[in-house]
Amino acid sequence: MSLDTSRPSAARAYDYFLGGHSNFAADREFADQVKAIAPSVPNVARLNRNFLRRAVRYCLDQGIRQFLDLGSGIPTVGNTHQIAADAHADARVVYVDNEPVAFHHSRGLLEEHPDATIIQADMRDREHVLSHPETRRLLDFDEPVALLVIGVLLYLPDPEPAELIRGYREHLAPGSLLAVSTLTDEPAGTALREEVQRLRAAYAEAGEPVHPRDHADILPWFDGLDLVEPGLVTLPEWRCDDPAEAFDVAAPLGYGAVARVP
Predict the structure, then answer these.
(1) Are the CB atoms for 111 and 13 separated by under 8 Å?
(2) What one GO molecular function would you report for this record (predicted)?
(3) How far is CA 148 from CA 174, 176, 180, 228, in A?
């Protein structure tokens, strides 16, 4: 595996924020710089991971046993296959990520999990993802699938998020579920908005610009789908099982929703 570890990676910085170990000195230095100018960012990462956990459990409660996780990132505690396997041993998971460290670490992690795999691909290359032998081995698109797009669409400029979701949605059977989370600063106060502006500048300088979005920007991504209650809301508002999350300083910095294919 050939890696340029001298340049920071957003995926590896996210792993560091979550307390993972699949990161390098450049990633930790960059992440520490981000924390210095935007101290709420690690909280956003944790809220986002907690939303993933609740969304996966909801999908399981609805009878879904197969998951396609786009832009899955570095294998850190609380990944989709771990959450699913805790509840249903027969759950099947296909991760998709283009980041070399995410791919190679996940592949090693999943060697003892025959019902979970990762493919190295750009998630925007829908045909490659869906026709990949590993995808075809584990997922049956004639049956409902949970499509997870968690904390990754902030890296795509418009109109790519809507196009990506619409393209995958065409391949999902009725009853499938889509879970999405992304960055926002719309409900935030002045101090948090200033943090987000500093965050955007830091990530742009690192070559990985991010795009916070308002509720009105995100809602059309779910056109043609049925939003699950409570709809598109801040992350702690989506079926949260920990009341303390509502008071987290980073609570206004993420939107999330789950929607059903009719």
Answers:
(1) no
(2) methyltransferase activity
(3) 16, 11, 6, 15
Fold of 10-260: Rossmann fold (3.40.50)
Q: pLDDT-derived band of residue 247, with 50, 70 and 90 as boundaries?
A: very high
What does the domain layout of the chain look like in residue ranges? 10-260
If you ran DSSP here, which 8-state letter would residue 228 be given?
Answer: P
CA atoms of 131 and 9, how far apart (whole Å): 28
pLDDT, tens digit, 9 for 90 and up, residues 75-103: 677 789 988 888 787 899 999 999 887 88
68 - beta bridge partners?
A: 94, 147
The pTM score is 0.93
**Contact present, 92 and 116 (Cβ < 8 Å):** yes
Residue 3's region, left for phi above 0, alpha for psi from -120 to 50, else beta, is beta
Q: How many helices (H) and strands (E) does the chain have?
A: 10, 8
